[in-house]
């Protein structure tokens, strides 16, 4: 297929993205609801539950590159990705059910086993599935559409997972069971949609398969990939601080804890609605340009956040909208740029390594989720910040620094590095006329 050839219709793009919704639902529930549910409702304690999920996250970071390598090296008549998805989905469904609908009287060992299975099967399904979006299309802009399709269905999954407890207005255990049922059902719908409607195109690789270490080494020697992942890590670290501290900022600076859900909804809605804007800008100028615009927008929103105080509801909505819009660009632009790197390598005859590169990118993303816990929370505790009571202006200043000021500085640094990518040549930022 020649560069610029579109391979998917609009309907096929939708069918490709559907499987993202159940994955997003399960991931959202895991981060937002599950730790508190097991610690408080199931009586396992915050310390023990935190240790289990920290272990699971570290294991998750380690298994991503492993699954990526093995998926790249898989040979079957169905291609390298589909066997992993089909075989991994039943295991993921069982893990979701066991994690979100546990029996009474379980202990910490149950959570350790079930959460480990969840992380493992999630990776087995997600890495090969997401890799398809990197390699299925030779068209530089269709790669952005593929990333956008996943981003839209990711937002849908997060909204569903956030609305179910509100609509049911029942105990968290009942809500989590419902989330599990919906996610498992949508998982079946997603894989069927993919199997029936999405074309399966893959390059036949004739070169000898590299060893695990050589596969990783060649991936990490790719300078373009390292530049991209460096920017992605810095921006995601900023995003993790904003997302991880939004609840505290709303409750203590804005003093409107009852509106936290509405601010999250504004953020999710802005993410989905602004996706076409980023795709348009990437076609008009370049993908780094679209990403840079979103970085500037988010910095402006966070700059506004530094001026807010008690009762500034409208201002907080603007901050949420700016953050949500930028999150969308942060999701699709680096993924689409990674697809360009993959396509360039395959055109040059390289070994298949889409899943390996994506897995390293995923591992970097997952490592950034510990930034709030490893940086902001200890400092807030050190200065005596009270998460449940009143705080002095000094305490609030520290919170604002980690919620807004430090993320601005990180995004500025990421933007400077992105400008360097912009100057390096056309390989990472094909123009709208490529």
User: Poorly predicted ranges (pLDDT <50, ≥5 residues)?
Assistant: 429-434
Rg calculated over all Cα atoms: 21 Å
Would you count the extended β strands for me? 0
Shape: globular
For this structure, the CATH topology of the largest domain is Growth Hormone, Chain: A
Write the CATH architecture name of the largest domain.
Up-down Bundle
How much of the sequence lies in strands comes to: under 5%
Write up what this structure looks like:
- With 434 residues, the protein is mainly α.
- It has two domains: 7-202, MFS general substrate transporter like domains (Growth Hormone, Chain: A, Up-down Bundle); 219-424, MFS general substrate transporter like domains (Growth Hormone, Chain: A, Up-down Bundle).
- It has 16 helices and no strands.
- The longest helix has 35 residues, at 313-347.
- It is globular, with a radius of gyration of 21 Å.
- Mean pLDDT is 86; it is low at 429-434.
């Amino acid at each position: 297929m020649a560069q610029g050839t579109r391979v998917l219709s609009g309907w096929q793009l939708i069918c490709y993205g559907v499987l993202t919704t159940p994955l997003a639902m399960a991931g959202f529930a895991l981060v937002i609801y599950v730790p508190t549910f097991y610690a408080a409702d199931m009586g396992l304690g915050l310390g023990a539950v935190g240790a289990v999920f920290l272990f699971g996250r570290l294991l998750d970071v380690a298994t991503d590159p492993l699954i990526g390598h093995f998926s790249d090296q898989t040979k079957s008549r169905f291609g390298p990705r589909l066997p992993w998805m089909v075989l991994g989905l039943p295991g993921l469904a069982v893990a979701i059910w066991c994690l979100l609908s546990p029996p009474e009287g379980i202990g910490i060992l149950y959570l350790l086993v079930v959460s480990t299975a969840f992380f493992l099967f999630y990776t087995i399904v997600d890495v090969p599935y997401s890799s398809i979006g990197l390699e299925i299309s030779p068209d530089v802009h269709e790669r952005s559409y593929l990333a956008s399709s996943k981003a839209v269905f990711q937002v849908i999954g997060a909204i569903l997972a956030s609305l179910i407890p509100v609509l049911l207005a029942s105990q968290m255990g009942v809500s989590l069971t419902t989330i599990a049922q919906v996610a498992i059902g949508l998982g079946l719908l997603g894989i069927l949609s993919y199997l029936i409607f999405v074309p399966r195109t893959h390059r036949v690789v004739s070169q000898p398969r590299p060893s695990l270490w050589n596969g990783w080494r060649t991936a990490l020697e790719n300078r373009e990939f390292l530049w991209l992942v460096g920017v992605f890590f810095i921006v995601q670290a900023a995003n993790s601080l904003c997302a991880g501290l939004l609840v505290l900022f709303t409750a203590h600076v804005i003093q409107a804890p009852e509106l936290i859900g509405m601010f999250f909804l504004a953020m999710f809605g802005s993410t989905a609605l602004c996706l076409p804007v980023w795709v348009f800008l990437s076609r008009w100028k370049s993908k780094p340009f679209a990403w840079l615009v979103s970085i500037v927008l988010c910095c402006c929103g966070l700059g506004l956040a530094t001026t807010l105080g008690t009762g500034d509801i409208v201002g907080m909505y603007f901050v949420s909208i700016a953050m949500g819009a930028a999150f969308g660009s942060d999701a699709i632009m680096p993924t689409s740029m990674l697809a360009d790197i993959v396509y360039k390598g395959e055109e040059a005859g390289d070994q298949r390594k889409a899943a390996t590169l994506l897995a390293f990118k995923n591992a970097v993303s997952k490592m950034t989720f510990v930034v709030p816990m490893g940086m902001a929370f200890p400092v807030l505790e050190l200065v005596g910040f009270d998460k449940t009571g009143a705080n002095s202006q000094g305490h609030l200043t520290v919170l604002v620094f980690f919620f807004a000021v430090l993320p601005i500085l990180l995004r500025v640094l990421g933007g400077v590095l992105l400008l360097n990518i912009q100057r390096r040549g056309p390989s990472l930022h094909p123009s709208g006329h490529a």
